[in-house]
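Q: Structure for this?
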Amino acid sequence: MTLLALETSCDETSAAVVRHGIVLANVVSSQIKLHQEYGGVVPELAAREHLKNLLPVARAALSEAGVSASSLEAVAATQGPGLAIALLVGFKAAQAVAFALNKPFLGINHHEAHLYSPWIQRATDTPPSPLGGERAGVRGGHPPATRDENRLAADFSQFQPNVSLIVSGGHTLLVSVESELNHRVLGGTIDDAAGECFDKTGKLMGLAYPAGPIIDRLAAQGNPAACDFPRPLLRDANDDFSFSGLKTSVRYFIRDHPAWLEDPQKIRDLCASVQAAIVEVLVKKTIRAAQREGVRCVTASGGVTCNRRLRQELECACKAHGFTLRLADPGLCTDNAAMIGILAERKLLAKVPLPPLDEEVKPGWALA
Ligand code: KG4
Ligand code: ZN
């Protein structure tokens, strides 16, 4: 099946073409620079930018994939959660394409797409499987990706029940994935998300938006033990997260030690200490949930999964506790339409019921 997917839930305009689990093209136009001067995403500006960029991005994806619009067999788009006026742009455009081509359309939950993104790997990283794309629970699998292409391809033949950490700018979730397309949310953030904590503490340090990648870079030369920030909810016997108290501690620390922001090395130490606190909570709670759920596999996805310390610490912890770890490809951690397209194709192959074509966006659509 050749499918076009659109993603416009926040500040990335993205279009992807997927076919038989292979990502033929995944074009992402980021608006980060536009929102930087406001210190965060401005919904109205995001929507206007999506309107401006959607057609060029979709055209580029079709051209890179070598696919004409008339040969598309299905269309998908992010339906939620996200900014309502941003979601509307991609979702309504995708519905219109499906209407014009008279092809099936599927609205996708953005977090569910993150959830399965760790099963999309570079073809060269994916060992060939005797089962190909076929696996229990989903009919109509697809052949494995051609190994000599460095293309992203989904490989659900390796699928096993897992506990999945989704860490993005707006959400921190722990999810138990019992089988493909069958999951249960274990816990989430009760206030700030992990990405938000990176971004807001970075702002307190005077770093540009989004501060996550900058903290990652500066922390590499900092001392993670320089400041002893709290590890919120680490000892609580639940799978919830709370990062606003950590942000407040950083605020008070900076208020009490203003000279730290004048010293580049002290800023690096501050970054390393904040990062260490966030990562320790994420890793320990993920491992604990995986042990309790009795799974053998841990996965992680979402923008914060780009973080090098998080990747390293998850690798160490999973090794120590005997878990298989699947991290989303760095190119698919932040928002992209490839993960939307791959999940939509799996759902269409699994013959999920098609919703009516005049469905609306769901800005607050929580993963169940
Ligand atoms: O998944 P995503 O692209 O957007 C949402 O759906 O929210 O995640 C964006 C978030 C931002 O908070 C950004 O600071 C964070 O991911 N992020 C990072 C890194 N790269 C992106 N946080 C820490 N370290 C990074 N390397
Ligand atoms: Zn996201």
